[in-house]
Write a structure and sequence with these properties.
By secondary structure, the protein is α/β, with parallel strands linked by helices. It has helices at 18-28, 64-67, 83-93, 115-118, 146-152, 177-200, 210-216, 219-228, 262-272, 276-279, 286-291, 293-304, 309-318, 329-332, 336-340, 382-390, 394-402, and strands at 9-12, 32-37, 52-54, 61-63, 74-77, 98-101, 126-131, 204-209, 245-250, 253-258, 323-325, 344-349, 353-358. The chain folds into two domains: 9-216 and 339-402, Crotonobetainyl-coa:carnitine coa-transferase, domain 1 (Rossmann fold), CATH 3.40.50.10540; 245-327, formyl-coa transferase, domain 3 (2-Layer Sandwich), CATH 3.30.1540.10. It is 36% helix and 15% strand. It has a six-stranded parallel β-sheet, with helices on both faces. Strands 9-10-11 form a three-stranded antiparallel β-sheet, with helices on one face. Helix 1 crosses helix 6 and helix 6 (177-200) crosses helix 7 (210-216). The longest helix is centred in the middle third of the chain and has 24 residues, at 177-200.
């Protein structure tokens, strides 16, 4: 084991995406991550397919969704509803640094696997709970899913085409972004708690709620509302505070322009063959361009449609104007910059062979992230973990399997 968190053991009782995303980050940073799953069925996302990655002989498979957030983990299948399963979890907690869980509020208390119970076993434990709405408040007991939270948290109200245009209506983001962001915030919270423990020896309880995270990540749109009292509306691909900052048609498709200042806008005008736009008082400053976007955007569209996307990207990059194509995922994973940055990786699995995975974007010079283990089959490491950490014999484990406690 190597990496900045190689001294940390994480017990990951979470499933689906937000919690497993956090667990995978810890694994990438070198932590030993033990994923606790239900016998027979495992993490819900094991069945979220197609597509599935199958072994050559068809004897094993993993869903692409499960592959998303479960590398660098060991799978231990335990029935936590069984008293013996609960006792196994407690023994693992005694030897662990972090617990991640995303059960409903109070869901683990009936098994005495909540923080108040487990801190008696391990006072230095960092225990992180991830829920849809938090541990308190009027919605605390509601289940929370990413799509629901994108809706309730305001993201869908500012995503999609404006009213009155074709395809208008609220739209979710194309990936479960709120889950992913919650996983990131949970990771930050646990790292902060680990740092506090390093200085004081104290463990603590950490929580992250999807609704909290979604509201926090409204960013400039939240402040646009809080400073004006006016709720932002859907604007398609346009930006509420910057112009031009959206997609534009080309002779063979579309491109994106992200003009961040007046100097870039002047260079764009030169490249488009209309330097006079940069000195026009309606467009000379970003404040003016935002106020007069209805006049400016059609002019820009009439100009950009005259060349292909590749031609415009070549011209505008030479001019120092930020721009780029609207890539499909096959184009993304063939992009030389994406490949050069190591964002396409693969791992070997004894049953599945070569398993593709998306690289971790964190670049640490002295303690880099590592790709050690492909996402595991259900219960793949049950015997190994129970023997090495809990100290059970092969006969003990066999008896637990026969009673349905582990698999």
């Amino acid at each position: 084991m190597s990496g900045p968190l190689a001294h940390i053991r994480v017990l990951d009782l979470s499933r689906v995406l937000a919690g497993p995303w956090a667990g995978q980050i810890f694994g990438d940073l070198g932590a030993e991550v033990i994923k606790i799953e239900r016998p027979l069925t495992g993490d819900d996302t094991r069945s979220w397919g197609p597509p599935y990655l199958k072994s050559v002989d068809g004897s094993a498979e993993l869903s692409a969704y499960f592959l998303t957030a479960n590398r660098n983990k060991q799978s231990l299948a335990i029935d936590i509803a069984h008293p013996e399963g609960q006792e196994l979890i407690r023994k693992l907690v005694a030897e662990s640094d972090v617990v991640l869980e995303n059960f409903k509020v109070g869901g683990l208390k009936r098994y005495a696997l909540d923080y108040d119970s487990l801190k008696l076993i391990n006072p230095e434990l960092i225990y992180c709970s991830i829920t849809g709405f938090g541990q308190d408040g009027p919605y605390a007991n509601r289940p929370g899913y990413d799509f629901l939270i994108q809706s309730m948290g305001g993201l869908m109200s500012i995503t999609g085409q404006p009213d009155g245009e074709p395809g208008a209506g609220p739209m979710k983001v194309g990936v479960a972004l709120t889950d992913i962001l919650t996983g990131l915030y949970a990771t930050i919270g646990v790292l902060a708690a680990l740092n506090h423990r390093e200085r004081t020896g104290e463990g603590q309880y950490v929580e992250a709620a999807l609704l909290d995270v979604q509201v926090a990540c409204l960013a400039n749109q939240a402040m646009n509302y809080l400073t004006t009292g006016k709720a932002p509306a859907r604007m398609g691909n346009a930006h509420p505070n910057i112009v031009p900052y959206q997609d534009f048609p080309t002779a063979d498709g579309n491109m994106v322009l992200t003009v961040g200042n007046d100097a870039q806008f002047a260079r764009l005008c030169d490249a488009l063959g209309h330097p006079e736009w940069a000195s026009d008082e309606r467009f000379a400053s970003n404040r003016a361009r935002v106020a007069n976007r209805r006049e400016l955007i059609p002019k820009l569209r009439q100009a950009t449609v005259m060349r292909s996307t590749r031609e415009w990207v070549d011209v505008l990059e030479r001019s120092g104007v930020p721009c780029g194509p609207v890539n499909t995922l096959d184009e993304v994973f063939d992009d030389p910059q994406v490949l050069a940055r190591g964002m396409k990786q693969s791992l070997q699995h004894p049953d599945l062979g070569e398993v593709p995975t998306v690289g971790n974007p964190i670049k640490l010079k002295l303690t880099p992230v590592s790709y050690r283990m492909a996402p595991p089959l259900l219960g793949e490491h049950s015997e190994q973990v129970l023997q090495q950490i809990v100290g059970l014999s092969a006969d003990d484990i066999k008896a637990l399997r026969e009673r349905g406690v582990v698999s």
